[in-house]
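Annex B.
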Amino acid sequence: MPSSNSSRVAYAFLCFTALFWGGNAIAGKLAVGHISPMTLTAVRWIIAFLILASFSLPQLRRDWRNIRRYLPLLLAYGMTGFALFNIALYTALNHTSAINVTIEQSGMPMLVFLANFLLFGMRVTLAQIVGFLMSILGVALTAANGDLGRLAALDINRGDAIMLLAVVLYGGYSVALRWKPALHWKSLMTVMSFSAMVTALPFAVWEQASGSGKLPDLTGLAVALYTAVFPAILAQIFYMRGVEMIGSNRGSLFINLVPVFGTLLAIAILGEAFYPYHALALILVIGGIWLAERGAGRPKKSGG
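DMT family transporter: predicted structure tokens.
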């Protein structure tokens, strides 16, 4: 059992992880007008890959035999979870608020829960089902801007629709991580970052050639640097270390803080309006994930 000292360090790592991930949506919103979404994704992963490669090459050489064996899978991880997800997220932020994006993003754990149930027959409890429905209702409420009747009429903001696609992409990536090979985190991160960079570059070239792209100014470069260093690298390292110290069940609960930090940052930095339906959606999403986590962690009683 981890000591109280190491637990406090783990809590700090995991809180910073949630803060950096929540800040990703704020950075994407600040990027609007300073660097276009696909170009931002490409620049982000170029920077992240160069940073990771600068200290990971010895580990990559040691792991190369296993890397080659799993290379198609690792490249697919980087393509979907790192590149395509962020392209969709940053594009969504050109059309909707950062508060909406962070709340909708928090629906990912429930999508993973549903996929595991449908594809792999994962056993579920009543608490997990209720938690799933609560979270989905919270995300739907956010996408519909507080009016669920808009969903029936398919009247959804373009940005919210793109963000829901991003959630599906990352949910698929998360489910596929069950096949992740046992490689050192440096090797995993470097190969996946390389894949994200290679995937994002053609999108950025197309964006610029089509006339819809914008090359980064100083603000755009600062945003790209933040997204590369903090959400892309440090958050992943802190999360891995925090989970190592206190376990995945306790560690994963800190992801619930992402929409909280994202919403607070959007209000403080961007001056976005916070509506009553946002508060209700946060309660539903976070409460639903908490309930599902408790239901998953409670052993099923035997007997009648």
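The radius of gyration is 19 Å. DSSP finds 13 helices and no strands in the chain. Further annotation is deferred to the next reporting cycle.
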